[in-house]
Write a structure and sequence with these properties.
By secondary structure, the chain is an all-alpha fold. The protein is built from five helices and no strands. It has one domain. The chain is globular, with a radius of gyration of 18 Å. The termini are far apart.
Length: 126
């Protein structure tokens, strides 16, 4: 029983982490900017563009304060948000093209490659 209890939370945490990663949440979220970034990613990917625009503006303000307060360097949350936008836009372009009956296979292949490249770039930065 103790062994099951010891394994339970780690499996649950791994599942939660996998779901969060699939939604565009970073592997950590102790900063306010991480939480806003996850909300932005979800809003943009689900098409709530007005909400995403407000969240990105808020993200920029919060990140600026966090960078000054903590002397942070490297890729920031706003840059990660831009990479997420590039991926979602590439995904949407692929989706739109893939359902067209008159789509040329070469164009669909280029859209898939662009989507995969955008995802790789985003995931490498996260």
């Amino acid at each position: 029983m103790a062994e099951v209890a010891a394994r339970g939370p780690s499996k649950r945490n791994a599942t939660i982490a996998a779901i969060a990663e699939a939604c565009g949440a970073p592997g950590y979220d102790h900063r306010l900017s991480d939480k806003i970034l996850a909300a932005f990613n979800h809003a943009y990917a689900s098409g709530a563009l007005d909400t995403a625009r407000h969240l990105k503006s808020l993200l920029s303000d919060v990140e600026r304060r966090e960078r000054v307060a903590n002397d942070r360097h490297g890729i920031g949350a706003v840059e990660r948000a831009d990479l997420w936008v590039a991926f979602v836009d590439a995904r949407n372009q692929y989706n739109a093209l893939s359902v067209r009956k008159d789509a040329m296979p070469a164009h669909v292949e280029m859209a898939v490659a662009a989507m995969m490249d955008a995802y790789r770039t985003w995931s490498d930065a996260v």
